[in-house]
Design brief:
Length: 305
């Protein structure tokens, strides 16, 4: 075991240091950081309920006991697989830092994950109608709900990408949007359909004067975290108004991808629109309409302006 410069650390201090490593060295997105934070804090609170980690008292069996407890609470295999992935990451980091012996992560169990074993959870036609009806109004909030819904359903944007949309990212003259990658950190250019353009104009005219980003609360602070929450809460309330309780916000992105697949888009086109770093990520949609995917791609859904 490597020598560590510290013999103990508070859980909060270690978590902050680990998050800094994940963000600045590994480049993980903020929502992924939140997942790591939750698992790491649960692990060390399980072993050190007093809040102070004593590294010489932290043993591999503590990880085993933690996993037994959590797997009994979380029977879903995919959730268990994700928690194991996070735990491997932190154990690898602890080994590199000298807090534990290297190689602990290799001793963790593996859960078989069958690629594309389940269908993406898309929204039904009835649920889509309910969403459109819920944002069918002239109030500023209805205009905001509608344009966010359009961006997610027509362009397949992630919540973070919608929240990070700046006014300067809209190229009105050429009819396109620059999407700042929040997960893959790869920017992309997407066409701006006419209905989205009209919805953007209506929203901006009804919103705060001289905003920097397209979606900003009326009052400061205008931080990344607050704007992200503002967009996510807008969609959550829209789902509530539409009476949708069996689908999460990511179902909008799945629905957008399914629509492109059903209209004959190729794997490459779907991957480019969604901003997937690897085309293998897009293959989950193949079984939705494999025959259509093998055909020549059709024009952009809804027409490009």
């Amino acid at each position: 075991m490597q020598s560590s410069s510290t013999t103990s650390s508070s859980i909060s201090d270690f978590t902050s240091k680990y998050e800094h490593h994940l963000f600045n060295v590994r480049g993980l997105a903020r929502n992924t950081l939140a997942l790591h934070r939750g698992v790491v804090q649960a692990l060390f609170r399980f072993r050190f309920p007093g809040g102070v980690i004593t590294w010489r008292d932290f043993h591999f069996n503590d990880c085993v006991g933690f996993l037994k407890q959590e797997f009994a609470r979380l029977p879903n295999r995919e959730t268990q697989r994700v928690w194991l992935m996070v735990l491997r990451s932190v154990l690898r980091y602890l080994g590199d830092e000298g807090h534990i012996s290297k190689g602990w992560e290799a001793a963790l169990p593996k859960i078989t994950s069958y690629r594309h074993a389940s269908l993406p959870r898309r929204l039904s036609e009835e649920q889509l109608r309910d969403l459109w009806e819920a944002c069918n109004g002239k109030a500023p909030r209805h205009l905001r709900y509608r344009v966010i819904l359009l961006l997610c359903l027509r362009l397949g944007l992630r919540i973070g990408e919608v929240a990070n949309l700046h006014l300067e990212d809209i190229d009105w003259q050429n009819g396109c949007l620059q999407i700042r990658g929040t997960k893959s950190h790869r920017d992309r250019i997407l066409p701006l359909p006419e209905d989205i353009g009209e919805a953007l104009v209506a929203h901006l005219r009804a919103g705060r004067r001289h905003p920097t980003r397209v979606f900003e609360p009326r009052h400061p602070p205008f931080t990344d975290k607050r704007i992200h929450r503002y967009v996510a809460n807008s969609l959550r309330y829209l789902f509530y108004l539409a009476g949708i309780t069996d689908r999460g916000l990511h179902s909008l992105r799945h629905t957008a991808a399914t629509s492109m697949v059903n209209k004959g888009a190729s794997f490459k086109e779907v991957a480019d629109v969604l901003g997937h770093k690897s085309i293998t990520t897009t293959l989950i949609y193949a079984k939705l309409d494999l025959k259509a995917l093998l055909q020549v791609a059709l024009p952009w859904p809804g027409g490009v302006q």
